[in-house]
């Protein structure tokens, strides 16, 4: 997957599958149509390309096919985030965090959660 980076449309399909898989093209198309106007053949074409790229696998199911994601959500997000941090922030996670916190209105609850994550990371590194 290192060289495979899902497009925005492909991520939309993956996010649907990660919630409930397997699904048919028709089922995925119906879910996508709840938020945007997309033709069935567009959804089908995206999923065919994803299968060719190795992002999805399909298995026969009567007259249709069931689609499964080939990669876990966290693995995919992690690789996408790594590529983004490397290309946009020169590999600096702290630069990403500072930019994100500077651009967004962060709630007290979110800041508390971030502090808790940092404390957990510090505790893990002190155990090593």
Could you characterize what this model shows?
This protein is mainly α. Helix content is 64%, strand content 9%. It has helices at residues 8-19, 25-32, 40-53, 73-89, 93-103, 108-127; strands spanning 56-61, 64-69. A two-stranded antiparallel sheet has the order 1-2. Helix 2 packs across helix 3. 12% of the residues are buried.
Task: Tell me the β content.
Answer: 5-15%
Helix content: 55-70%
Average pLDDT metric: 91
Major beta sheet summary = 2 strands, antiparallel
Structural class label: mainly alpha
Biggest sheet, spatial arrangement of strands: 1-2
Present the secondary structure layout.
Elements: H1 8-19, H2 25-32, H3 40-53, E1 56-61, E2 64-69, H4 73-89, H5 93-103, H6 108-127
Antiparallel strand pairs: 1-2
Helix pairs in contact: 2-3
Brief rundown of the structure:
The protein is mostly helical and 128 residues long.
Features:
9% strand, single chain, 6 helices, 2 strands, 128 residues, two-stranded antiparallel sheet, mainly alpha
């Amino acid at each position: 997957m290192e060289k495979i980076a899902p497009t925005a449309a492909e991520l939309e399909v993956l996010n649907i599958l990660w919630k409930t898989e397997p699904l048919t093209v028709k089922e995925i198309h119906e879910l996508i149509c709840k938020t945007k106007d997309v033709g069935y053949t567009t959804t089908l074409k995206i999923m065919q390309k994803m299968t060719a790229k190795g992002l999805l696998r399909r298995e026969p199911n009567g007259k249709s096919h069931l689609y499964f994601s080939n990669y876990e959500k966290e693995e995919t997000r992690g690789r996408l985030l790594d590529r983004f941090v490397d290309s946009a922030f020169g590999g600096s996670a702290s630069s990403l965090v500072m930019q994100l916190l500077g651009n967004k209105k962060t709630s007290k609850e979110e800041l508390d959660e971030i502090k808790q994550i940092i404390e957990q990371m510090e505790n893990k590194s002190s155990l090593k």
